[in-house]
Amino acid sequence: MLSVFCERWQPETMTFHLPFGEMTITLDDVASILHIPITGSMISFSQSLRVDDANALLVELLGTTDVEASRETEQCRSPSVRLLWLRENFSTITDVSFDDDIEFATRAFLLHLVGCTLFADKSATSVEVVYLELFRDLSMVGRYAWGAACLAFLYRQLTTTTRFEVRQLGGYLTLLQAWIYEHFPEMFSSPDLLYIESRPRALRWRPHVIPDSLQSVRERLDRLQSSDVCWEPYMDHRAEHPFPNIAWFSRCIKCRLVVEPYHLERVLRQFGYIQTIPPRPFAPPRPDHSILLDQYWERWTDHVLTDQSRGRRCQYSGSGESVAEYMAWYDRISHRIVQPPHLRSGFTTDAQSSLPSHTASTSDTQQSGDYFWGALNEAHSILAGSDKTSASHNTPSPAPASHSTPSPATRPFFSPPTFVYPLPASVDPPPASDDPPPLIVPLPPASVAPPAPAPDSTACTSVYVRSKRKKKS
């Protein structure tokens, strides 16, 4: 399931390009699914940590020795530590331990937590030591916009996955999986009937394995329509978790040196508004403009999407409406279907009827058969020397009259061209019949010898020359 959605991620827009338009994970999704803060200070680091600096940070904030820190970073071959190493060294700390040990263990636990959730890398076994800086003062942990940083990190991981050589996905995959369950409940979800709305929406769903193959899930996604989407899944959740106005922020979100654009104009239907043709996506500023980006975020009320940019609300809640010209514009800038229809498998009646008109059908097979039988009959006529005397042998027509050559406008895209061979003027065409052409072309009666070809016949001369060349070779 996750692989199919990764195939539809577009790095230029930070959105999933689906058959009916664009969708993406928003700050509202993060706040509702995870219940972590999306307001507060941006997570900003001027530069990455060197190995020596990482060792010093481990000694200062986790209380390890310099030898232990050096051995661990050397084993990771980077300024990182293994999640297993954190568990082995700090899981024995209890409430009766010394205060310093409890503080060290608290930082180790928080580092382990973000390393296997919000900022999980593709290995899922290690975490960068630089995140310890966020836990230097434990009383200030709640002041960061963890949700915005998590979303920016996931955007970057999805963008990396679109490269051909990448085979794994990092980031908080629970967020991505729960987002798919929320917006496509009829297709993928398995709800927990004991869920209550005061808890994060991620707990509403039970993880399960989809028995379908990658190809079948890809085909199901290709057939999705706007009516199959739950555009506003958190309406029942608003009493416990109101809509956050910062979700209308329309600039860039950041996590350390990762800066990604946040394009709300492209997914207005997820907020209950009619989707219009969005403006061109903007390129994010360079990460070294950290102060400017932090100022935008701190004054987010000055950088929200205006009422004019939002447009009109949908007539019915969750209807997923769009302006009339939206789909025509979308067809010009994107691809609705990922998998070519002629490569699909496991057809059903409903699935086959929903395919585009250029898919090969039964009539295309009949036209291909007409081409084959026409060529076979013509070859037999040449070999029998009856191309000019076919009237005496009453050779049947190679193509029934009911099949005509389709025009270029109506010929299926994937079908071969159909050639209908003209009948001799002296032969009346046989009556139209629904029966397929005969499997065996009738030969002339044995008592009637075919006329001998003329000595100067071009066909005979060419055959003689070819056979003579073969003997020489």
Question: How would you summarize this macromolecular structure in one to three sentences?
Answer:
The protein has 473 residues and is mainly alpha-helical. It has 17 helices and seven strands.
Descriptive overview:
With 473 residues, the protein is mainly alpha-helical. Helices cover 36% and strands 5% of the residues. The protein is built from 17 helices and seven strands. It has helices at 2-7, 27-34, 51-62, 66-76, 83-90, 99-116, 146-161, 173-183, 185-188, 214-222, 290-298, 307-310, 326-333, 349-353, 362-384, 390-393, 458-472, and strands at 9-10, 15-18, 21-23, 80-82, 126-128, 252-255, 258-261. The strands form three sheets. A three-stranded antiparallel sheet has the order 1-2-3. It has a two-stranded antiparallel sheet with strand order 4-5. Strand 2 (15-18) and strand 3 form a beta hairpin. Helix 2 packs across helix 7, helix 3 (51-62) crosses helix 4 and helix 5 (83-90) runs antiparallel to helix 6. It is globular. The two termini are 61 Å apart. Residues 347-369, 386-429, 436-450 and 453-473 have low confidence and may be disordered.
Largest sheet: 3 strands, antiparallel
How far the N terminus sits from the C terminus, by CA atoms, comes to: 61 Å
Described by the principal axes of the CA atoms, the overall outline is globular
Strand % is under 5%
Number of helices, counting only DSSP H or I runs of 4 residues or more: 17
What is the residue-averaged pLDDT?
78
- Report the structural category: mainly alpha
Oligomer: single chain
Helix content: 25-40%
Record field, number of beta strands? 7
